[in-house]
Amino acid sequence: TIATSIGANVVAGQAQLELGRLYAHTGEVGRASDALSEARRIFENSSSSRFLETADEEIAQLDDKKLVASG
């Protein structure tokens, strides 16, 4: 992405986080999972603990949605 190419990794992570939230909201669980996992990876590599925690919370909520949908 443009953000990563200019060294704005946290911005790229935030974009992936928001994309994951959007996908989760529209029921696209697989795409949401991919985007949130990518956001988490970016935040972890950037040592951005605040956003890493947020990504983890979003992933947990998505996992809860998966359980409800399958059960």
Give a nutshell description of this structure:
The chain has 71 residues and is mostly helical. The chain has 4 helices and no strands. It has helices spanning 2-5, 9-25, 29-45, 49-70.
Q: Report, as a whole number of angstroms, the end-to-end distance.
A: 37 Å
Question: Judging from the principal axes of the Cα atoms, what is the shape?
Answer: elongated
Order of helices and strands: HHHH
> Strand content of the residues, in percent?
under 5%
Task: Provide structural commentary.
By secondary structure, the chain is mainly alpha-helical. Helix content is 85%, strand content 0%. The protein contains four helices and no strands. The protein has helices at residues 2-5, 9-25, 29-45, 49-70. Helix 2 packs antiparallel against helix 3, helix 2 (9-25) packs parallel to helix 4 (49-70) and helix 3 runs antiparallel to helix 4. The longest helix is centred in the C-terminal third of the chain and has 22 residues, at 49-70. It starts with a helix and ends with a helix.
Please render the helix and strand layout as text.
Elements: H1 2-5, H2 9-25, H3 29-45, H4 49-70
Helix pairs in contact: 2-3, 2-4, 3-4
Task: Please describe the structure with a list of short key phrases separated by commas or semicolons.
single chain; 71 residues; mainly alpha; 85% helix; 0% strand; elongated
